[in-house]
Specification:
The protein is α+β, with helices and mostly antiparallel strands and about 375 residues long. It folds into 3 domains: about 170 residues, Uridine Diphospho-n-acetylenolpyruvylglucosamine Reductase, domain 3; about 70 residues, Alpha-Beta Plaits; about 60 residues, 2-Layer Sandwich (Alpha-Beta Plaits). The chain is about 25% helix and about 25% strand. Strands 3-4-8-6-7 form a 5-stranded antiparallel sheet. A hairpin with a 4-residue loop joins strand 15 and strand 16. The chain is globular and about 60 Å long. It starts with a helix and ends in a 15-residue tail after the last helix. This is Glycolate oxidase.
């Protein structure tokens, strides 16, 4: 019997009842899956809504490349099932621990090294079943069902951190695992590496991951065997163990260990952005996503980092909890127009503020 078969359990009715009771009593809920992503965002005070037991694969059609899974299902179990059919979640969701769940992966909306070439988490969500504020279980997305306000919630839920409703089931588009893969490293200084990445980005090459750190450009090639082999011969370099990309994805690489007084930040920038004018040693910056995502270990304040990012059209997110020395507001403050839309959406879908209150921003 597989791990997934053992974990197969539908507790949607009990979850709906708990949400319904919380709605009637105006009781805040803290939605909990594997709790491996609790560091991401602001802390939430509320009654725990435990999702981990709501697990199992509801349906899977390898021919149609579609799988529907309950939100509490462990990512490792889903990935093992997909791998048996030589398929995968193409957005490469991070796993910050063995208890990491599918619902948490979608709720945080985080994607791994393949993101710029394959797409983000929300791009692979076909549909969802969501528990609404009244404790109703409704289906959205794949069957084009919308609520009275006209929202398609499936994509809104990706990255909403549970503030708009409770993910019960998620349907994904999956993709075949590439038939060939090769990772390599090239010794290049930062300026040379960024120029190289810009050059490679203009060519139809089978690159699915690109990073730079401490004098090394790191690349992953995936696709047909002939294409991968030809590109490998063209680029040269030294072989790189494929496990490197999992360590980067899951923050298990040695880089992610911060010194005392440092916080870990993710800088999200437009493609081909130059190095930012920040007083940070080169060894404390890790360039991912061909330079569009940059991990930074620093004691610099939030305003300094965010001003530098905004000057080139980007933003900065703090991954270190405030209690451990991180920023009080982990996410970039919203401008007045965007904040108005956020407030209106929250008021429509969570009128009493019971779903993960304050998780994204203190006001909602």
């Amino acid at each position: 019997m597989t791990e997934q078969a053992i974990a197969d359990r539908d507790i949607a009715d009990a979850l709906c009842e708990q949400v319904r009771s919380a709605y009637d009593a105006r009781t805040p809920l803290r939605i909990v899956g594997g709790d491996t992503r609790a560091f991401y965002g602001r802390p939430v005070e509320g009654q725990a809504l435990q999702m981990a037991e709501h697990s199992g694969i509801v349906s899977y059609d390898p021919v149609e490349l579609v799988v529907t899974v309950r939100a509490g299902t462990r990512l490792s179990a889903l990935q093992a099932e997909l791998a048996e059919h030589h398929q995968m979640l193409a957005f490469e969701p991070p796993m910050f621990g063995a208890a990491s769940t599918v619902g948490g992966a979608v709720a945080t909306g985080l994607s791994g090294p393949r993101r710029p070439w394959a797409g983000a988490a929300r791009d692979f969500v076909l549909g969802t079943r969501i528990i609404t504020q009244e404790g109703k279980l409704l289906r959205f997305g794949g069957e084009v069902m919308k609520n009275v306000a006209g929202y398609d919630l499936s994509r809104l839920m990706a990255g909403a951190q549970g503030t708009l409703g409770v993910l019960a089931d998620i349907s994904f588009k999956v993709l075949p695992i590439p038939t060939a893969t090769h990772s390599l490293r090239l010794s290049l200084e930062l300026g040379e590496a960024l120029n190289k990445l810009a050059e490679l980005g203009r060519k139809p090459l089978p690159i699915t991951a690109a990073a730079w750190h401490h004098g090394e450009l790191l690349l992953r090639l995936e696709g047909g065997k002939s294409s991968v082999n030809a590109t490998q011969e063209r680029l040269g370099g030294e072989p790189l163990d494929a496990g490197f990309w999992r360590e980067l994805r899951d923050h298990r690489h040695a880089f992610f260990t911060c010194s005392e007084g440092q916080a870990l930040w993710r800088l999200s920038l437009p493609p081909n952005s130059p190095p930012l004018a920040l007083d940070i040693p080169e060894t404390d910056i890790f360039y991912d996503w061909a330079g569009s995502q940059r991990w930074v270990k620093t004691a610099l304040d939030a305003d300094t980092l965010r001003d530098a990012c905004q000057s080139v059209g980007g933003h900065a997110t703090c991954y270190t909890p405030h209690a451990q020395g991180g920023a009080a507001e982990p996410f970039t403050p919203l401008n007045a127009v965007v904040e108005k839309y956020h407030r209106n959406l929250k008021a429509e879908l969570d009128v009493h503020g019971i779903f993960n209150p304050g998780r994204l921003y203190a006001a909602f």
